[in-house]
């Protein structure tokens, strides 16, 4: 028999807070249980930070339960309060446009079949468009205590800083009402979300108990951070890693995961892949014995790229990344792939007529910050052009070196690669 979903989530490090787990286990065992997770359209695309929830919902489905993917057509127009800063209101049209794109992404992670575990796509506009302000204040508002709401961390922080509008203050009620509506419509008994959602989720649990005298559960996943303690899934520049390939290229996506530190590779494999315990244990052992192989990182990057962008893209980006870092043939990269890769790494230009040397090539894309540093890199054996080590400071490229008549791939050390356009 396969492992219980709650035990699986626990060894994967995916449980932060919960209401009574034994009670939830009983309801799951009587399953299929309907659960939900909500996604607000705060941008044109979901991002890596949404992966934990997306995958957790998918894990429940694989374990024989029914996930409801709730798109926040209404809540997205209000905005879940952040720790700092009131959000700017977004028009209804923009929210709708965003939702169209996000719905497609949500649908990728779960199966929509007619079985009792087939996923459901919902939108909370379906009820918020109907309920009047008066009814809302009477039927929902009356069950929420301002005293309790004021004691919430985010609210306290905002009150101490820039304050908060009534609009954002009401968000808790909206999400709580969603849970009630989904409970009534589909018998939804569990809401999952990130640990920052705990208050919003138990708000719904309490509300359902008060008005329907029924038990519903709450489960949160931990906030995932990277090695610098930043929220997981932020690029080095601090921007989000988007699921949309037009916004974050599959190459950058892959590169982010292939570069995670050794101590995070295995925890990430547990949280972000469907690999079994045995497969992950094996990779953990390999990482402990031979960290330089970066086997865990590579598997992580491959799995996540395939999950989000498909196998074909994974093949292309692995090829490109291997070629760029000297473990494959650069000559085998087609022009489109090479161009796509060059769009993702630092690049610069040199003119052949200026008789550039390796020092200029390292400087042009900013792989070093000075001529001195460039010379040092050459001396230390850390300078490469098209994967060939260059040991002579006076080495000069020729037109024939340019890949597809245009690019030199320049690398400093093992990890820093860039491109130099060779102009006449
Ligand atoms: N508040 C959630 C999104 C959400 C919206 C509506 C819900 O009913 C549930 C969750 C977030 O900010 O991530």
Automatic annotation (TrEMBL):
GO terms for MF: ATP binding; RNA binding; tyrosine-tRNA ligase activity
Motif 'HIGH' region, residue range(s) on this chain: 41-50
Chief location: cytoplasm
Assigned keywords, A-Z: Aminoacyl-tRNA synthetase, ATP-binding, Cytoplasm, Ligase, Nucleotide-binding, Protein biosynthesis, RNA-binding
Ligand binding (ATP): 234
Binding site for L-tyrosine: 36, 171, 175
Motif ('KMSKS' region): 231-235
PROSITE patterns named among the record's database cross-references: AA_TRNA_LIGASE_I, S4
GO CC annotation: cytosol
Its biological purpose: Catalyzes the attachment of tyrosine to tRNA(Tyr) in a two-step reaction: tyrosine is first activated by ATP to form Tyr-AMP and then transferred to the acceptor end of tRNA(Tyr).
Subunit structure: Homodimer.
Family: Belongs to the class-I aminoacyl-tRNA synthetase family. TyrS type 1 subfamily.
Name assigned to this protein: Tyrosine--tRNA ligase
The organism of origin for this protein: Amycolatopsis alkalitolerans
């Amino acid at each position: 028999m396969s492992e219980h979903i709650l035990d699986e989530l626990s060894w994967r490090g995916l449980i932060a807070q919960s209401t009574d787990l034994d009670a939830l286990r009983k309801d799951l065992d009587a399953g299929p249980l309907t659960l939900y997770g909500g996604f607000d359209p705060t941008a044109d695309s979901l991002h890596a930070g949404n992966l934990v929830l997306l995958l957790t919902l998918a894990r429940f489905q694989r374990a024989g339960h029914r996930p409801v993917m709730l798109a926040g057509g209404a809540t997205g127009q209000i905005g879940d309060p952040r720790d700092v800063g009131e959000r700017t209101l977004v028009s209804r049209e923009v929210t709708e446009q965003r939702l169209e794109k996000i719905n497609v992404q949500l649908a990728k992670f779960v199966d929509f079949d007619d079985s009792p575990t087939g996923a459901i796509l919902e939108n909370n506009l379906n009820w918020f468009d109907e309920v009047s302000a008066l009814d809302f204040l009477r039927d929902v508002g009356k069950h929420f205590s301002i005293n309790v709401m004021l004691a919430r961390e985010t609210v306290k922080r905002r009150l101490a800083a820039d304050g908060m509008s009534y609009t954002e203050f009401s968000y808790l009620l909206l999400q709580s009402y969603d849970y009630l509506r989904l409970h009534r419509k589909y018998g939804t008994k569990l809401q999952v979300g990130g640990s920052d959602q705990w208050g919003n989720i138990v708000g719904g649990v309490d509300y359902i108990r008060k008005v329907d005298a029924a038990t519903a559960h709450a489960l949160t996943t931990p906030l995932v951070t990277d090695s610098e303690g930043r929220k997981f899934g932020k690029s080095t520049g601090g921007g989000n890693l988007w699921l949309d390939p037009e916004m974050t290229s599959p190459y950058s996506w892959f590169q982010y995961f292939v570069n995670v530190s050794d101590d995070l590779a295995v925890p990430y494999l547990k949280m972000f892949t469907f690999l079994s315990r045995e497969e992950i244990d094996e990779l953990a052992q390999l990482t402990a014995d031979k960290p330089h192989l970066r086997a865990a990182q590579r598997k992580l990057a491959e799995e996540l790229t395939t999950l989000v962008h498909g196998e074909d893209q994974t093949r292309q980006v692995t090829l490109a990344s291997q070629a760029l870092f000297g473990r494959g043939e650069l000559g085998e990269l087609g022009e489109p792939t090479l161009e796509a890769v060059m769009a993702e790494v630092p690049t610069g230009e040199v003119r052949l007529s200026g008789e550039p040397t390796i020092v200029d090539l390292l400087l042009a894309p900013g792989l070093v910050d000075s001529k001195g540093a460039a010379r040092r890199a050459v001396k230390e054996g850390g300078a490469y052009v098209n994967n060939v080590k260059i040991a002579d400071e006076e080495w000069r490229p020729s037109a024939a070196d340019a890949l597809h008549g245009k690019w030199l791939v320049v690398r400093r050390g093992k990890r820093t690669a860039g491109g130099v356009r060779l102009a006449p």
